[in-house]
Amino acid sequence: MCKLNYIRTLQLLSALFGFAGTIVMVWGVLASTPNDIAKLGGLYLGINPNYLQSIAESRAYTIIGILFVSLSFFFQIFIYVFENKLNHRVFNITIRNITICIIVGIVTIITGTYLIHSKLVDDTIFSTHKEMAYLSLEKQYNYNKNHNKVLNGKVILEKGQIDVIKNYMEELSFNKLSGESEAEYFVRFYKYLGHDFANQIDFKESGIQ
User: Fold this and answer.
1) Where are the alpha helices (DSSP H) in 32-94?
2) Which residues of the chain form beta strands (DSSP E)?
3) Every domain of the chain and the residues it spans
């Protein structure tokens, strides 16, 4: 069993405080959802792609940094718990061994950072575009409904609004299925985004067959 003296106790507390700080950072980063990013980016007037890319990369690097700090914390806890067993496992300190350790560490960090960063950025951008589409279509529906662009109780979409919807379909790689009508395609897209008012839109009168 590993005994703790004052120094080791302080080191453990330091690691715990560091981990607590990491948890707070995670909370803060994850609180910034794609929905918030979409709104912050000026959703209804269009979002600057460079701005979105910058926000996504900043979020990704912060999460990666948090992962490395968390990994460091668990390494320290592992050492505290298994120190006695680890003391009996030694290897010769040579330039070759040190060089191998450094190279493996650097390659692991760079490769891991690149792969995780790319994944996080892509996911954030995709999710933000999806949120933008959701809120944009919601705004279209409410605007037309409030401005009496309605026929037989159903909302009529304008050509410009339809073009906006098609742009979002393309951005999200939402493809039309074989044998699917244009109206069915649009209804499926609304449902994909989570909207339940597609049946309240007159696609035929909107020019969507």
Assistant:
1) 34-40, 49-87
2) 150-151, 154-155
3) 6-128, 148-200
